[in-house]
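**Discrete fold encoding**
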Amino acid sequence: MTRPTATTMDPSMRIVPPAPSKSASLNDTANSLGLHDTLQYGPRSIAAETKSTNPLQHRLDHWEETQDNMKLTMLRELYGLHAPARLLMERRAVSTNPHMPALQRSNIHLDILMGRDETLSPSDLFLGMERGPSFSTHMEMERKQRL
């Protein structure tokens, strides 16, 4: 499951995520001769045409993001533009974590601001230790600094 980003807001009162966008099929991109019009619609992708997505899976993947956007929109309607802007600014400030990358930690500040402080997930219990501790501190620092 994807978690909502801490720094974006889509101003809508949508309760459930929108339906997934449909990929263009040959019927949608055909010209007058019944062939795919590459100049107008770009190269044809068979993989995109045959890929079927389950609408329920799409809803589950985007559920938290949609709920967060709805809460931010309600804050905006009730208290004005400053309330969601301040909350997003606070989320951005606490989401950057200057700790050593090899050490496992949780970001309780961001969980409180996102409203996840009263829920339990596997990441709360294992703190990212599913694969075991990383003993290469130097490699973790290089990965964090993108060297």
